[in-house]
Amino acid sequence: MTAATPSTGFAAVACLCLAEVLTMVGVFTFPALLPGFVAEWSLTATEAGWISGVMFAGYTLAVPILTPATDRIDAKKVYLLGATVAGMAGLGFAVAAQGFWSALALRFVAGIGLAGTYMPGLKALVDRTSGPQQPRWISFYTAGFSLGTSLSFLLSGVVADAMGWRAAFFLAGGCALAGAALVLTILRRAQPLPPTPPANPFDFAPVFRNRAAMGFVLGYTTHVWELFGARSWMVAFLVWVLTTQPGATGPAPTTVATIGGVLAMVASIAGADLAARLDRRRVCAFAMIGSAGLALGVGFAGGLPYGVVVALILLHNVLIQIDSAALTTGAVLAAEPSRRGATIAVHSLLGFSAAFLGPLVFGMVLDHAGGSGNGLAWGLAFASLGMAAALGPLALRLR
């Protein structure tokens, strides 16, 4: 495409990052309020894991259709569709969710909305920017995921405490629709791509043959397994720690999750800068080893003072996120220019398949190891995340 001017590039980045944060508000509303749903709907840990993870099953099924389409049509159109679906899913949950099955269906639809916004938004950014600043802008957008996560936990907790969980989902749906309105009114049309030989945008074989890109994609898959498993269950874990320590003081679990999201955003940007200056694969591998090591032990630390557990959870959030933007940027830069949409689709397909499995496997381990009232069970559940993350450095050896 023709080079974007700095002002046009910056305006597009600002618009898409803000819209991303707005559409992310509903992504972690259910995990933020999970203990309340478990009590109100008498959910098992496995059922709670299903509801937490099914959103990413919806994402996984939709992303191979929606993201490759951005190689042939303006990603803005796909984004508008996705944000609208996300908004309606949030409003629908507020009105119609009554228990396990209805929640499962509506969170699945929310995942389709996320598939139409997160990576299509990245493609819209790439199509509207160019030059040496582009990798940093990609890292800003990717880090915006963490800012959206922190707001999701914060707003969900505050609104639910004041007005109930249905109000929290009303807010989430409204924010997604506001993101759609922002993109519709502000984001300019992308410059057309130069003519290229006709190619099937849904042919993923060339992407899988691109070893350099696939190394980052597979590394991202292990990263997302750990990331979403931890984010889906950290509030419930901290609630359990508080119940075992009467009189313990410290920030509320949703506040901890909010702080963790902000720290993760900073860590993601810092990690992307390090990766740009040093060896990208090595930076990512060291971050993976660190987060995996902590995941293997953090769940067993529930008997320590609450403040110590909070510090360990926050450190885990930082270590998980150091490689996030660096991995996505690596996949985009290693992709064939005419197949960036398809590459991003495979990146998301595999990554968010892991986002579905991570919380689900966590819940299954928790149930089978003794339940959410058992310290050993929490330790083993977190260890399942660490074992997945430990595979990441092996994936990065692909070149």
Structure summary:
The protein is globular. The chain has a single domain, classed as MFS general substrate transporter like domains (Growth Hormone, Chain: A), CATH 1.20.1250. The chain has helices spanning 6-24, 29-32, 34-41, 45-66, 75-96, 100-115, 118-127, 134-163, 165-186, 205-209, 211-243, 253-277, 280-298, 306-321, 324-334, 340-368, 375-389, 392-395.
Write the layout of secondary structure elements.
Blueprint: H1 6-24, H2 29-32, H3 34-41, H4 45-66, H5 75-96, H6 100-115, H7 118-127, H8 134-163, H9 165-186, H10 205-209, H11 211-243, H12 253-277, H13 280-298, H14 306-321, H15 324-334, H16 340-368, H17 375-389, H18 392-395
Helix pairs in contact: 1-7, 1-8, 1-9, 4-6, 4-16, 5-6, 5-7, 5-9, 7-8, 8-9, 8-12, 8-15, 11-12, 11-13, 11-14, 11-15, 11-16, 11-17, 12-13, 12-14, 12-15, 13-14, 13-15, 13-17, 16-17
Account of the 3D structure:
- This protein is an all-alpha fold.
- The chain has one domain (6-189, 206-395): Growth Hormone, Chain: A (Up-down Bundle), CATH 1.20.1250.
- Helices cover 78% and strands 0% of the residues.
- The chain has 18 helices and no strands.
- It is globular and about 60 Å long.
